[in-house]
Amino acid sequence: MFDRFTDHAKVAMNLARQEAQRLGHEHLGTEHILLALAREGSGVAADVLQKMGHDLGGIRINVERSVETGKDTSWEAMKPFTFGAKSALEFSIEEADNLGHNWIGTEHLLLGLIKVGHDVAAKILLDLGIQLVDAREQVIAICGTGAEVVSRETRSERALLAIAPLLRQLTRLERQVVRQLLNNIDQEDHPQGQ
Q1: 69 plus 165 within the same structural domain
Q2: pLDDT, tens digit, 9 for 90 and up, residues 16-46
Q3: Integer Cα distance of 36 and 31 in angstroms
Q4: What are phi and psi of 5, to 5 degrees?
Q5: pTM above 0.70?
Q6: What is the pLDDT of residues 131-165, one digit of tens each?
Q7: Cβ count near 183 (within 10 Å)
Q8: Can you tell me the distance from the alpha carbon of 161 to that of 106, in angstroms, rounded to the nearest whole number?
Q9: Kind and range of the H or E element at 134?
Q10: 80-105 pLDDT, tens per residue?
Q11: Helix 56-66 crosses helix 30-40 at what angle (to 10 degrees)?
Q12: Does residue 63 contact residue 100 with C-beta atoms inside 8 Å?
């Protein structure tokens, strides 16, 4: 399931597990994913929330006020997902597909949380006035749709791939210049007629 996830989305899901652990919860729910998106802070979801006028720290405070601290102190590598969290992940894949994106980024996780509609994170987001349609418009404004889309998380990788042939050519030219300089130096040290 996580093979299409961007690095930011993978980090967010790891942070969600940490948030569940920190709060002493036996499960990983939508509230943990929302806490993680706010904590991760550098993905498209963070940009969307901020462009919609929301402070990431304020979102974290709202979530933490809405949930009780549990007593689970185990450090399980993977906490079981709640039904809402599973639904949010499924909706995030659906949202990515609907937008023509071939990746699942933090933006899709955010859209999936809102789309669940009945869980802790969705209620918090809706109480803050964050509607699915508005969030989706922000995602499209940032990422685009369909064929013109380039994920912000992979732009640098694509830029490097685009300039790689130029870098190889520069390296070849550099080697030729160095060889020519060495030949010139060698000829100066050992003139042919002497």
Answers
A1: no
A2: 888 888 888 777 888 888 888 888 877 777 8
A3: 9
A4: -70, 135
A5: no
A6: 767 777 777 777 665 544 444 445 555 565 567 66
A7: 10
A8: 24
A9: helix 132-143
A10: 888 888 888 898 888 888 878 788 88
A11: 160
A12: no
CATH number, domain with residue 10: 1.10.1780.10
Interatomic CA distance for residues 123 and 107, integer angstroms = 18
Q: How far is CA 91 from CA 36, 94, 135, in A?
A: 17, 5, 14
Give the side-chain half-sphere CA count within 13 A for 109. 33
Containing 61, the helix (H) or strand (E) segment is: helix 56-66
Q: Domain for residue 89, yes or no? A: yes
Residue 125 counted as domain residue: yes
Q: Which two tokens stand for residue 91?
A: 């909706």
Range of the domain at 175: 153-189
Phi (first) and psi of residue 28, to 5 degrees: -115, 115
189 Cβ contact partners less than 8 Å away, ≥ 6 residues apart: none
Residue corresponding to tokens 């929301």: 54
Residues recorded for the chain: 194
Locate 121 and state its tokens: 């994170």
Q: In terms of domains, do 71 and 165 share one? A: no
pLDDT bin (cut points 50, 70, 90) of residue 172 is confident
28: in domain: yes
Q: Which amino acid is at 190?
A: H
Q: Which two tokens stand for residue 130?
A: 């964050």
Q: Token match 């990515």: residue?
A: 96
